[in-house]
Amino acid sequence: MTALIAGIVPVFILIAIGYGLRKSDFLPDATWRPIEKLSINLLYPGFLIPAIWDADLSGGSAGAAGGSAVTAVLIVGALTLLAKPLLKIDGPAFTSVFQGTIRWNSFVFLPVIQSAYGAEGLALAAVMIACIIPVTNIACVAVLARWGADQRGVSPLALTRAMLANPILVACLTGLALNFLHVPPIPGISDTLKLLGGAALPLGLIVAGAGLSFAEVARRKWTVAGVTVVKLMVMPPLMWGLCVLYGGNELAQATALLCGAAPGAAAAYLLARQMGGDAPLMAGIVALTTVGSALGIPVALALFHLA
């Protein structure tokens, strides 16, 4: 148990290094966006494709893990919508609250799973990502189209194009297709993907840290704290319980628990900025949930293995 938790510590150290590099102006602000683009569009696909391609998905646990993630997102998203009349916030702020409760950061989730459960855990995690991305994208874009400042309608075709342009989703689907078709490793290509993937996790964590902004946390502390409680205290046991209900094995249950405990997604900030959401509030939610997950993930892992 101590070794599992110790393996997670470097994940958050790298996030802290990224935050320190950004705050110290070690690299100019304009540099971080191209690094983020490189990570998302090239390095992370290089990591995900072989992880799923080589995985043993013959058991039923992958379905239980993916199903629990999707069901938990739908439940929390529906409850957040029902709670909207009770929240004393405007429409754009509500869109950030909604995104904060259901979206999560794969840049943090994947290295945590790799540290704790190795390649087998990564395969389940990648399946969960492939299941969740379409659901969260559709829900968040719909909410932003309805309550964002722009209130622009989004056609089903435009939404489909946006999802198919998501490199992480495309990488997951590519890996699954190669796995299901039993395509053997391709000399040269497989090795190249694994070399790219080796750089994905450390650089992704540094980029995640560099993107953190705490300016809005103090100014809107109750809203940010409320979303953080839902994200880090409600979502993990809900996702774990659903995985148990769906018959997932111990590894699937642990993966579901850690998926629920992952912090808010930095991509949610970009979507809020693009579609008239409350981008500063979204940045504050991502920052506090990231700090909270540094404490919550080891606790969740310890409680799971003591149960």
UniProtKB/TrEMBL annotation:
The chain crosses the membrane at residues 62-82, 123-144, 164-183, 195-215, 222-248, 254-272, 284-306. GO terms for cellular component: plasma membrane. InterPro entries: Mem_transp_PIN-like (IPR004776), Na+/solute_symporter_sf (IPR038770). It comes from the Bacteria. Coiled coil: none annotated. It is found in: Cell membrane. It is a multi-pass membrane protein. Keywords: Cell membrane, Membrane, Transmembrane, Transmembrane helix, Transport. One of its GO terms (biological process) is transmembrane transport. PANTHER family: AUXIN EFFLUX CARRIER FAMILY PROTEIN. Belongs to the auxin efflux carrier (TC 2.A.69) family. This is Auxin Efflux Carrier. The lineage of its organism: Bacteria, Pseudomonadati, Pseudomonadota, Alphaproteobacteria, Caulobacterales.
